[in-house]
Design a protein that fits this description.
Layout (H helix, E strand, L loop, with lengths): L3 H53 L2 H15 L6 H25 L1 H4 L7 H9 L2 H17 L3 H22 L9 H26 L10 H35 L4 H19 L3 H20 L3 H38 L2 H9 L4 H16 L3 H21 L1 H4 L2 H25 L7 H9 L1 H17 L4 H23 L5 H5 L12
Helix pairs in contact: 1-3, 1-5, 1-6, 1-7, 1-8, 1-9, 1-10, 1-11, 2-3, 2-6, 2-9, 2-11, 3-6, 5-8, 6-8, 7-8, 9-10, 9-15, 10-13, 11-12, 11-14, 12-13, 12-14, 12-18, 12-19, 12-20, 14-17, 15-17, 19-20
């Protein structure tokens, strides 16, 4: 079995490669098809995402946790095939019901989209609901079994296939297809291809279909997660509909509104959430790890895992926050040739830290069976996002989304810390080092700004004006960490030792 750090590094490497491919391909798409087409696809995909959420019903996450628990207890590991089959039957039944309903009530669904062009895209992508749900279940199984190579390599493969499919359908060979239709068809083809690969891997690795078991337990434990994910899907769909509509009410044309939404979600968010390729690896490893430690009563080990993970997230995201705040606009011009997307990145830099932390804490709480509390914090936090989208566009336009997202993630983070403390999965020993690390954001941003001023005065061009201050900020930040040593036993946090020492003593 790989250690916690080895598993995290493995997933991190694959995640970085996947995110880099996705990121640079989105740059290509934004230049190839434009912000408006990206906005149309994102609006259709957001409603499709809601259907996926309802169909999955939180089952993949619960399946992953159940798989980890049964594997840790060993004597119950034979039950896995029945649990996996039960989850598959349950999810696919819901999926077929949803597809049938969408087809029967096709004329009733058109009101959902503020732009009628999205309707066709939605029904083109709808068949992928079957493959997406199957894909999520299989990846949940691999996560629970700690087969992180299989989990990660298929994610990378998905991105490669998506790129090939998009390039194919956007080529002259399919010139009769509009750009938005070509992207949508490519997504569907990719989804089914990856599903087939995962099914083959499942059987090769010893997976089997058996008599369904544990369906009631999956439904019961998955209901809070289902509620949260359905609410998240509704929230995403609401934003995709309400925000462009609000922009139109305040003077934008439908095309301009779609372009603004496309810049924010299709361009800026891909850059803002780039740190999640690093911190997201922790979430993948921590879920089965925490479930196994809790199932075997090793709470002190669990607290050590959580302490290290939170510190690692702070270490990574504080640097990204400082860099995005100063250089966001230059990144937009360099990567997307769109200054507006860059300004959105700079304005939204504050969401990077709470977004990564809330994701980590929610994953940990879900692994400990606290799904209801996670759902509660999501509902309360969502109110802030909804209010921002409804009332702020008239004052700050598309930046209402940024304010709402930042408030949403910050509220989730606060709730997560309180709930995890009460559960006994966190003991407060990292507050001081985390606060000191956070304080390094200001001098790091200042170093980036001063270097940027020098490069701009020297007229070095867009690339060097972004690259040199980025490098200067990174070196300055690492220097602060090395000199002031805010995190005790940093080497044990980042590097592997024969006998791993605790980051904190009681």
């Amino acid at each position: 079995m790989r250690t916690f750090k080895q598993s995290t590094i493995l997933i991190m490497v694959f995640s970085i490669a996947t995110r880099l491919l996705s990121f640079f391909f989105k740059i290509y798409l934004s230049r190839r098809v434009g912000a408006e087409v990206l906005g149309l696809f994102q609006m259709a995909a957001s409603v499709f995402g809601l259907f996926c959420t309802i169909a999955g019903s939180g089952i993949p996450l619960m399946l992953s946790r159940k798989t980890a628990e049964l594997t840790a207890l060993k004597s119950h590991e034979k039950e896995l095939h029945g649990v996996m089959t039960g989850g598959m039957v349950l999810s696919l039944s819901i999926t077929l019901f949803l597809i049938g309903g969408a087809v029967i009530f096709r004329n009733k669904l058109t009101f959902v989209f503020s732009d009628g062009r999205c309707v066709k895209l939605f029904y083109l992508i709808l068949p992928a609901l079957i493959s997406t749900v199957t894909y999520q279940l299989l990846r949940g199984y691999f996560m629970g079994k700690a087969r992180y190579f299989d989990y990660s390599v298929t994610e990378l493969l998905e991105e490669v296939i998506k790129i090939v499919a998009c390039l194919t359908f956007l080529s002259n060979a399919f010139i009769t297809l509009s750009d938005s239709v070509a992207i949508t068809v490519a997504f569907t083809v990719t989804d089914y291809t990856v599903m087939a690969v995962l099914l083959v891997l499942y059987f090769i690795k010893g997976g089997r279909f058996a008599r369904p078991k544990g369906v009631k337990e999956l439904v019961k434990s998955g209901l809070p997660v289902t509620g949260m994910r359905v609410a998240a899907g509704l929230l995403t769909s609401f934003i995709a509909i309400a925000l462009p509509a609000a922009l139109v009410r305040n003077g934008s044309t439908p095309g301009e509104a779609a372009a603004e939404y496309g810049r924010a979600v299709g361009m800026a968010f891909s850059l803002l959430f780039a740190p999640l390729s690093l911190t997201g690896a922790l979430c993948v490893v921590l879920l089965p790890e925490a479930a196994a430690l809790a199932a075997t009563g090793k709470w002190e080990d669990l607290r050590q895992r959580v302490n290290k993970s939170i510190l690692f997230v702070f270490l990574i995201t504080v640097l990204f926050y400082a860099i995005f705040f100063v250089l966001g606009e230059h990144y937009g011009e360099l990567l997307f040739k769109d200054a507006k997307a860059g300004r959105f990145v700079a304005f939204s830099a504050g969401m990077v830290i709470p977004a990564a932390l809330s994701g980590l804490l929610n994953t940990t709480l879900n692994s400990l069976g606290e799904e209801k509390k996670v759902f509660f914090s999501f509902l309360v936090s969502s109110v802030l996002l909804v209010l921002s989208v409804l009332f702020l566009p008239r004052f700050i336009g598309i930046y209402a989304l940024s304010v709402g997202e930042c408030a949403f993630h910050l509220c989730e983070f606060v709730f997560g810390m309180v709930f995890l403390w009460k559960k006994g999965g966190y003991d407060g020993r990292i507050f001081k080092p985390a606060a000191i690390t956070m304080a390094f954001a200001f001098p790091t941003a200042l170093a980036a700004k001063l270097t940027l001023n020098l490069t701009e005065k020297a007229n070095l061009g867009v690339f060097l004006c972004a690259a040199i201050p980025t490098l200067a900020a990174m070196l300055f930040y690492l220097g602060l960490i090395a000199v002031f040593k805010p995190i005790p036993h940093l080497k044990t946090l980042l590097l592997r030792r024969k006998k791993e020492k605790p980051v904190f003593s009681a």
